[in-house]
Amino acid sequence: MRGAVIYAPGDVRFENLDDPKIIKPTDAVIRTVATCVCGSDLWPYRGAEPVDEPHPMGHEYVGIVEEVGSEVAGVRPGQFVVGSFATSDNTCANCLNGWQSNCLNREFMGTCQAEYVRIPNAHGTLVATDEHPDGEMVPGLLAVSDVMGTGWYAALAAEVKPGSTAVVVGDGAVGLCGVIAAKELGAERIIAMSRHESRQKLALEFGATDIVTERGEEGIVGVKELTNGIGADSVLECVGTPESMRQALHSARPGGNVGFVGVPHEVALDGQELFFSQVGLRGGPAPVRRYLPDLIDRVLSGRINPGKVFDLTLPLEQVAEGYKAMDERRAIKALLKP
Amino acid sequence: MRGAVIYAPGDVRFENLDDPKIIKPTDAVIRTVATCVCGSDLWPYRGAEPVDEPHPMGHEYVGIVEEVGSEVAGVRPGQFVVGSFATSDNTCANCLNGWQSNCLNREFMGTCQAEYVRIPNAHGTLVATDEHPDGEMVPGLLAVSDVMGTGWYAALAAEVKPGSTAVVVGDGAVGLCGVIAAKELGAERIIAMSRHESRQKLALEFGATDIVTERGEEGIVGVKELTNGIGADSVLECVGTPESMRQALHSARPGGNVGFVGVPHEVALDGQELFFSQVGLRGGPAPVRRYLPDLIDRVLSGRINPGKVFDLTLPLEQVAEGYKAMDERRAIKALLKP
């Protein structure tokens, strides 16, 4: 089969690779229907994370089950499935608590920009749809496997409630899905922070009520002006830089909440500042598995359409162009079709 | 009148001071019935916070209203009152959200180890009891004004729920009150971390089910052994050092919560570590005013007895001995009577 391999920052190649096989009895192998490039894939692509040796890439996927191991009871060959970027057995203590992204047997996916993918912990990771979805539903279901699930978690971690005010820091695919999540969870006012016209437009379409284009101190002032001078009830941090975290923490009101889902890079928090802010903080890799059945329903019923974050669709063999377009911010998110 | 003044680390004196007066129409002046020495008073006493110039001390109090300003409607002279260490108007946006400790007109108390005290924002700060309580109720009511209210907040910030497992880091008065709070909020298992026999005994009396005496890595292992290997649902951090915060964060399970109420001193948090732990974190000065009516009821009904944290009672004029006894850990907490 063929798939993407990163060799160095800026150097992603599409190559012949060994076909994935069942290794453990809890594995499945799927034929990829769609995959994509994630904002977090850009960290190594931009050299912000080391690339020690060439390795496959990609952790978002929907596909058709090809083969299952002897202990996989929940899904069967031929089914259309959606999974999470973090695999989970769905039976350990953390999974039973609803934190499948911290499953004691977790393996992070990382080979999904390929024609076939091995899925560890398949029974506890994959959710099959009742029937094969129409092609137009595929982008939305693919979004659910990571960015929509992550935006959903950000909104829950930020404790968005009916009638509340939410701020979304970051206008990438996760931030835009965060707007959808805040809307679905009943936020009355949703302030999207964005400087890019096309992303502002999508944020407004997804339910944002206000746009703040400023950053830094001016951005904080902009949010305060819209929130009674005290800040927002909930803030979704969807970037992961020191600047975005600062923006998020200072945009929340005393007693408000920040959900942070951008993987933090060189972010340090001052304990005393956090203390006096009284802001609640929760982050992490989203327990997408917990949300999959609900989010799949919302997509298939047409209630939400997170697939709109894909503004570029390419054949999988052009994966390198997908990275390039996202790196240069020509695309919000690139969908790849084998 | 007479009251305590700190001159330098280790140097607290009992002196003649000007009688407090009504300055703003929202002030009250109370005659102190009881006050005490707080763990946080030990920071400057031990030189861990600077003492730039001599200043009065103390922020915990119960008393009898002597005089009220023209705009104070809620309390009247002659009433027995309990207040918080952070005054609040109880009408601003933060107060209405329940975060009175971040009142937009907040003034922190700091002159309470004295015979009379001026209370700013008296209307929104003081809660009067229906009648003058018996003397035996005074220690419990005094505890409510800070340590019991703070322990309560720690348990709520840590999201203690019925049937959950809670860890309390710190065996000072706040930690011990945190045990009471965890018990009242329904925790099934309460693990108190303590190396001091007298404090262990009180923790067990207050509802702790297990004691962990180790600290550092061994303390973390000790908690994990008692919590299914994954950590506790809720952790109450009641110290404020880098070591205690580390102990707290590593004692919580993925998706668990840490409520931190020890004022952090030189505590820095690594964003990425916090991210992957998925632990929720909320701290700050407790919004004691929110809890006062409920906690006063629990004390007066005999349901809780946080007054037991006072294991030393001194005449106010011996305030210096109160500091010394607490500094040397001869006393958990010193109650002072004018």
Automatic annotation (TrEMBL), chains A, B:
Residues 10-336 form the Enoyl reductase (ER) domain. Keywords: Metal-binding, Oxidoreductase, Zinc. SMART domains: PKS_ER. Belongs to the zinc-containing alcohol dehydrogenase family. InterPro entries: ADH-like_C, ADH-like_N, ADH_Zn_CS, ER, GroES-like_sf, NAD(P)-bd_dom_sf. It holds the Pfam family ADH_zinc_N. It comes from the Bacteria. This is IMP dehydrogenase. Its cofactor is Zn(2+). Transmembrane segments: none annotated. GO terms for molecular function: oxidoreductase activity; zinc ion binding.
